[in-house]
Amino acid sequence: MTDPHEFSESIEETVTVVLLRQNPANGELIPVEGDIAVDLDASTPPPPELVAQLLDSSVRLTAPSEVPYEIVEAINELPIPVLFAQTPWLRAHRVLTFRGGRAALGSFRMRYSPRLGLLVDELSRTDTRE
Q1: Other Cβ atoms closer than 10 A to 110
Q2: Which residues pair with 69 in a beta bridge?
Q3: Which residues contact 76 (CB under 8 A, 6 or more apart)?
Q4: Can you tell me the mean pLDDT for 30-40?
């Protein structure tokens, strides 16, 4: 008979997230694979060019094969932006914002590389630097 705890550990969880970078000069959010500023609180549908850039900047994260369960669970708890609710292409997407090239989520620090994709490092319990 299969141990139920062993079985649950092998179940994959996924989340789709749009990666945005914050412009340090003016604070605007921009897709990592784009150049159009994003207003996540806009209540009107985004133009097709912006939707395309947001989709190009999205990644599907799967736990445990790509990232730890904690990352998928934490991202799934983030609200879906008002802007994304205006288009069926983005309705299930969350946002991860990179400031200074990094994003932090719980005990994880992430970086984005156009060549390598999303890179995740777990912070040690003694590392308190942001």
Answers
A1: 18
A2: none
A3: 13, 15, 94
A4: 97
Pairwise CA distance, residues 124 & 81, whole Å? 31
Q: Tokens 């079985």 — which residue? A: 7
- Kindly give the pairing relationship between strand 94-98 and strand 13-22: parallel
Name the β-bridge partners of 94.
Answer: 17
* CA dist., res. 17 & res. 95, Å (int): 5
The tokens describing 41, both together, are: 């609180």
What would the pLDDT profile of 53-91 be if each residue is shown by its tens digit? 999 999 999 999 889 999 999 999 999 999 999 999 999
**What's this model's pTM, rounded to 2 decimal places?**
0.84
What are 94's two structure tokens?
Answer: 């969350």
